[in-house]
Amino acid sequence: MRFQLYGDDWSIEYERRPGLWGECDLDAKRITIHPQLRYRKRLEIIIHEMLHAGWPEATEQSVTDTARAIAGVLLVESKGNQRKSDALEWIAVVAVTVMGLVIVIEAVAKTVIAVRAYR
Q1: Is 100 helix (H, G, I), strand (E, B) or coil?
Q2: Between the CA atoms of 59, 18, 14 and 36, what dihedral angle is there, to the nearest 10 degrees?
Q3: 8 contacts: CB under 8 Å, gap ≥ 6
Q4: What's the confidence (pLDDT) of residue 114?
Q5: Distance of alpha carbon 64 from alpha carbon 60, whole angstroms
Q6: Are 20 and 33 in contact (CB under 8 A)?
Q7: What is the domain-level CATH number for residue 98?
Q8: Which of 38, 113, 100, 117 has its CA nearest to residue 66?
Q9: CA atoms of 91 and 8, how far apart (whole Å)
Q10: In the chain, pLDDT over 90 holds for what percent of residues?
Q11: Residue 85 pLDDT more than 60?
Q12: CA separation for the pair 50, 93 (Å, rounded)
């Protein structure tokens, strides 16, 4: 699957790698996900790796906690969806887009605070 994040083309690929559920390669703009994860864990890991892609300076704990929370909310919201596997990547893209907006809003707020302090 391909998606865009901050103007860059990214891909999500499925590959079995010993000891890894997921990996974000910032240079190659590629996210690799273990193909045999169950639905909830797969959603959480896709979101987790996409957060790394869009928020590389974040701590591992922040990314883990945020991904877990977003996955939990999306799973509750999508309950009853008969095509969960078809919607999985789309849901992750929407979640990271929302996180991107939060990051932008945070940056704007910091800028406003800095400008006010300068005056």
Answers
A1: helix
A2: -100
A3: 29
A4: 67
A5: 6
A6: no
A7: 3.30.2010
A8: 100
A9: 19
A10: 32
A11: no
A12: 8
What's the order of all strands across the beta sheet hosting 30-33? Answer: 2-5, 8-14, 30-33, 22-25
pLDDT confidence tier of residue 62, bands split at 50, 70 and 90: confident
Give how many domains the chain has, as a whole number: 1
Q: What is the pLDDT of residues 43-55, one digit of tens each?
A: 899 999 999 998 8
Q: What does the pLDDT average to over 6-10?
A: 89
Residue 8, strand partner residues: 5
Considering Cα of 83, then 89, then 92, then 97, what sign does the dihedral take?
negative
Please count the other Cβ atoms lying within 10 Å of the Cβ belonging to residue 48.
Answer: 24
Q: pTM for the whole thing?
A: 0.68
The boundaries of the domain holding residue 88 are 2-118
More confident residue, 100 or 45: 45
- Is 31 in contact with 47 (CB distance < 8 Å)? no
Can you give the pLDDT at residue 16? 93
- Is 71 in contact with 63 (CB distance < 8 Å)? no
Residue type, 101: L
12's enclosing H/E stretch is strand 8-14
